[in-house]
Structures are given as C-alpha cells and as structure tokens.
Amino acid sequence: MSDHQTFLLDLYHEAVQCFQDLSAVFEQTPQLLTLSKRQQIDICLEKVQHLIQIEEANPSYDKHNREIVSVLPLLYTQLQQLKYNHNFTQITSCATSTSIKTSQKAKEEKDLRDSIKKTQITPRIQGFEDIAGLFFVKKILATLVLLPIRQPQLYANQKISNSILLYGPPGTGKTQLVHALAAEASACLFSVAPSNILSCYIGQSEKLIHTLFKIVKEKRDHTTILFMDEIDGLCRRRSGDEAEWSRRLKTELLCQLTALEDCPNIFLICATNCPWDLDPAFYRRFQKRIYIPLPSRPDRFDLLKLFTKNTSLETTSNEWGPLLSKTEGYSGSDLADLVRHAFNIPLTELIDNKSWVVVNDNLYQPASVNHSFTSLIQCDVQELPPKSVQARNIQFTDLMAAANAVKKTISDADIKRYEMFENII
Ligand SMILES: Nc1ncnc2c1ncn2[C@@H]1O[C@H](COP(=O)(O)OP(=O)(O)OP(=O)(O)O)[C@@H](O)[C@H]1O
Ligand SMILES: [Mg+2]
C-alpha cells in the first residue's frame, strides 16, 4: 500500500469514527441540537471535506480507496442536512443509504459475474483428431497441459508452465487448438475476447478482469483453461500518451497473471495476430510462446483431407499434387473457404439444369450425355418435389476451380514479418 493510500485510509477511518460518535450522541438525545453536537458535526464535516479535496487533487486508483471516495459526497450531504435541519432521521437515512449501497454493490457484483459466466463455453470440437497437421504444436501442448494433468508426479520437482501464448497469422488454427486441448483435457473452458472486457464505464474493465480471474480461481479444483483471444487488444505496448484507463487495466491484468502462476490446475492461453504490439512486460510473462505458422504442404494435404472427408475423393489420387502446389501460402481458414466454394459448384449447376434423370430412391440428378433421351425429365429445379434432388459428387476439378476463385488472404510480406519477429525474440 502506498503512503497516499495509507494516509487516505487513516483519514477515512477518522471520519467514520467521528460519524459513529456523532450517531451515538444523537441516539442519546435525539431532539436536542446541543453545541457539542454541532461541534462534532463540524469536525466530521471538516474531515470529509478534507478527504474530498485530497481526492480531487490526487485521484486514487486503488479499488478499496475508490469505494471509500464514492461514499464521501453522500456523507458530506448527510452531515450538512443534519447540521441545518437538525433531524436525527437524516442519520438513519444515511444508514439506509449505506444499506442501499451494499445491495447495489451486490447487484453490481452479480452483473459482473453473469457477464463473465457467459464466456464459459463447451469446446466446439472433439479433440486433437479434428486438428489437421500442426503436429509439433499438439506435442508441445500435450506436454505442457495434458501430461501434468494425467501424470502430475512427473512435475513434482518443477513448476508447471501454465501460461502460453499462441501467435501467428489469422486462420491458422489457434482458436481451434485451444478448443481441441480443452476437449482433450476435459477442462472447463473460458473464452474471452477484448469485447467481453472493455467497457466504456470508468473502472468497469478492471472490475471485469478481477471478476474473471476470481471466477476462474474458484474452479481451481478442476482443470480450467482460460483462453484470452486477441490479447493485443488489451495489452498493447505502452506509449507516452496512453490513456489512464488503459494503464490501470494492464496493471490489473499483470497482477492477476502473476497470481495465476501458483495455480497449477489453471492454464492461461492467449492468442494474437500481432505479437509485436504486445507490451513487453506482458509478453515476458508467458512461460511458453508458440508460433503457429501457415500450413506446410503436408499440413495442407491433411487439412484438405479433413475438409473433404465425407466425399468420394480418393486420398491416394495423384491429383492432389497440383492442388497442393496451387495452395501454397493459404491458411487453414483459406483452405476451408476453398472447400466450401468447391462444394457449391455442383449446387450452382443445379440452378441452370433443365434435364433430370431419376436414380435410386426416387431422387433426381442432372442428366448427362450418357442418359437416354426417353428417360429424361425436362423442368427447372424449383419444379421438382422438395427434398428430392441429388447433386453430383465433388471432384478435383471443382477444387482446382475453387483454388482459382479463392485467393490466399495472407501476403508474403506479412509472413516475413512473423519470421523476422521469431528471429529477433
Ligand atoms: N489446423 C487446423 N485444423 C483444422 N481446421 C483448421 C486448422 N487451421 C485452421 N482451420 C480452419 O480455419 C478456421 C479458422 O481457424 P481458427 O479460428 O482456429 O484460426 P485462428 O488462428 O484462431 O485465427 P485468428 O487469428 O483470426 O483468430 C477454423 O474454423 C477451421 O475450419
Ligand atoms: Mg482465433
């Protein structure tokens, strides 16, 4: 506690003591405003006024002090009313307003907890088998998170690294990895984005951070993963003209991170696309920082196989080769877009099709040149019965056409920047 905080606290206690003495005097002789009572009111008023002045000249950012400061104007008004109206009910109403304040605080606390509880989610995938490629990352995460949970004796003589930073270009699977890890660990998953924390109300963001870590720590008996996405949105490098609220937010976050080091069941995983924007103090806190790169050629093969796993495309086909060369520099999410685009090609063809044949189970398929003219049905797709149309299977030509239409979203210059950053740190 700083000297200023101690001073403020002492002064506040003096004022409260004075106020309590005053209440006791009024309780004994409620009707009489004696000279001694008037003097006591004045002393108390003076103390409260002094506190207000100090606070105005040098605002306090300590949470406890801010609570104190927030009740001062009310206390001051109550004392003045008491002095000029001489009515002891004013003191009682002051007590009532204190209890209103207490219930307001409880409500505020509940609102904070409710908004944080919304960030607790179920992993959207089953586990590492839903992550294509990235074998080295899965291995690191298994060593850092899964092994200590299942074989804690291995870590008896060393501290568990429970803060991890994943950084890299967009769409490379950082968020997917965290979901997979949470599923593998059967962990309780909190997924927090800056929008869950940043608030336009003064002091609210720190309160949200505080509540977040409080709730997470309450789960300490169960493996918990706290995933903070786009962490650069909360912890940018400090700059000279940085806003006060941003400094306070970072300080609160840094304190909470330090406290988390002693909670082996809680794993903090943060993700960012801009590691160079992170505050160095914050960056250093991560015990493990992992670069998630664009998928390599074998990883692109794994990704495309995963995204087309329920199709008739042969995994052994030599048509993969040109596709893998063509998709050099694509991210996992670019490849997901590409496959989505390819799946749409047979569907788009249905819209223009006018000739149909009936196949097994009374389903309609677009006719091809091999079908005999007599078996053809001529109509638009809209005229066919609901749920009766079958599209043709997706082919490599569709994937190639999609690769021409869907461009990569990350430039070579962007990748260079990540690589340079990796070499510097
Ligand atoms: N290795 C992967 N395995 C499976 N799917 C992946 C992989 N990489 C990317 N994807 C696909 O790309 C999409 C985006 O992935 P994700 O959201 O995990 O990327 P990210 O790295 O978190 O991106 P951002 O940095 O923009 O948040 C996923 O929904 C998934 O379809
Ligand atoms: Mg993400």
UniProtKB/TrEMBL annotation:
User: What is a GO molecular function of this protein?
Assistant: ATP binding
Q: Name all AAA+ ATPase domain ranges.
A: 160-296
InterPro entries xref list:
AAA+_ATPase, ATPase_AAA_core, ATPase_AAA_CS, MT-severing_AAA_ATPase, P-loop_NTPase, Spast_Vps4_C
Biological processes annotated in GO: endosomal transport; vacuole organization
Q: Which UniProt keywords apply?
A: ATP-binding, Nucleotide-binding
UniProt lists the family membership as follows: Belongs to the AAA ATPase family.
User: PANTHER family attached here?
Assistant: AAA DOMAIN-CONTAINING, VACUOLAR PROTEIN SORTING-ASSOCIATED PROTEIN 4B
Put simply, this protein is called: AAA+ ATPase domain-containing protein
